[in-house]
Design a protein that fits this description.
By secondary structure, the protein is mainly beta. About 5% of the residues lie in helices and about 35% in strands. It folds into two domains: about 220 residues, Leucine-rich repeat, LRR (right-handed beta-alpha superhelix) (Alpha-Beta Horseshoe), CATH 3.80.10; about 150 residues, no CATH class. The relative contact order is 0.10.
Length: about 400
């Protein structure tokens, strides 16, 4: 069957199976919207053959596809589409460019079945996750979606059984059918767009999921219609900006809302950092301190002041970041660092230490995001800091 024929067949299959799912499943009575699923509920996971066209479960590498490093890609309008990942897994930072071309899409099945994949960072250049793009990656426990993503395709994260929380950025307008079905450990998901559309069984029958979003949003309506617990978030959104001073590079351009500042895979130390929040909609300030080689923890500074050093060739080893101000109780700040010998550590929160101490290891990169209080964590939070 040619590719167009398979796509038509896939659409018909999904439509027919979606209708057949209506009488499926023996579900215990849901007590009320706020309590989630009842304790004695019989949970049925929807079989993958019932929700997606699994006849095409291999990356769409064609004779026109190009191989570069860990990726195969196709040229498309506006840039390139990654069609297959062939790297070793672990925490993967998908590049914004490959061979000088902008990465705008992650194609169908590109990471399908990568059991070694444990984390993924998506650059802001990516606008679309294709069908089954991260399908059946059972050890994927940390996903940071870039602030340019528009569409999450059908079954994109189906079977990410280690994923416990995820933030869907405000740029996402559509979440596809069964995108998070069979993510059995998923407990919290936050939506920062008031009008995100949901295509049918987005979450399947995950038993203990709470949806966070803005009151009156489509996420609110979706949670209500599907008897999911919903937590309303404060209306204001706070932008955070940061810049790092990097060995052999100097000050990098400012990054924003979870973008990576610093470097990855270049063995270059962070030496200093400046952080600032846009408090035009909320009365908050940001405070931070760093652990510096030969110095230790420096005093806390705030609102764009330098923490660390420049011109002394001293590495940053750890960092603490917290919020203050009248509206401090309405927001959480999350941050994580890329540390020598460890790679990306987990996310720290609200003044906790991130990085290392007593191990003589450099920080190489950092991500920072400020979110409404009690939002889902951006990813795993188990080990943000290692002390010797």
């Amino acid at each position: 069957m040619n590719r167009i024929g398979k796509q038509v067949f896939s659409g018909l299959l999904i439509l027919s199976m979606g209708m057949s799912l209506l009488p499926m499943g023996v579900m215990a009575e849901v007590q009320d919207r706020g309590t989630g699923w009842a304790e004695n509920e019989v949970v049925e996971t929807i079989d993958e053959s019932q929700i997606l066209d699994t006849g095409s479960d291999l990356p769409e590498i064609s004779t026109d596809s190009i191989h570069s490093g860990d990726y195969w890609y196709d040229n498309i309008a506006g840039g390139i589409r990654i069609t297959s990942y062939v790297g070793s897994g672990g925490n993967v930072d998908i590049p914004a460019t490959i061979d000088g071309k902008i990465v705008v899409e992650i194609g169908a099945d590109a990471f399908n079945g990568k059991s070694t994949l444990t984390g993924v960072n998506l650059p802001n250049s990516v606008t679309v996750l294709g069908m089954r793009s991260f399908y059946n990656c059972p050890n994927l426990d940390s996903v940071f979606l870039g602030n340019g993503l528009n569409t999450i395709g059908n079954g994109s994260f189906w079977g990410a059984k280690s994923l416990t929380s995820i933030i869907i950025p405000h740029t996402v307008t559509a979440v596809g059918y069964a995108a998070f079905t069979n993510c059995t450990a998923l407990k919290e998901i936050s939506f920062f767009n008031n009008a995100t559309s949901f295509d049918g069984q987005v979450f399947g029958m995950i038993p203990d999921l709470t949806i966070f979003g803005y009151a009156g949003s489509t996420a609110d309506s979706f949670a209500y219609a599907n008897l999911r617990p919903f937590v309303a978030l404060p209306a204001a959104y706070v932008d955070v900006y940061y810049s790092t001073h990097v060995q052999n590079v100097g000050w990098q351009s400012s990054k924003k809302n979870g973008e990576i500042s610093g470097t990855v895979g270049q063995s270059l130390r962070l030496e200093g950092i400046k952080i600032l929040v846009d408090n035009s909609e909320a009365n908050v300030v940001i405070q931070y301190q760093t652990h510096v080689q030969n110095i230790g923890w420096q005093p806390m500074v705030s609102n764009g002041a330098l923490s660390g050093t420049t011109g002394l060739a001293l590495r940053l080893e750890g960092i603490r970041i917290e919020l203050d101000g009248v509206d401090v109780g309405k927001y959480d700040v999350y941050y994580r660092v890329h540390a020598q010998n460890y790679g990306w550590l987990d996310w720290a929160k609200n003044g906790s230490s991130a990085g290392t101490q007593g191990l003589s290891l450099r920080l190489e990169g950092i991500q920072i995001i400020v979110v409404p209080i009690d939002s889902a964590a951006p990813g795993a939070t188990t080990q943000p800091f290692v002390a010797g």
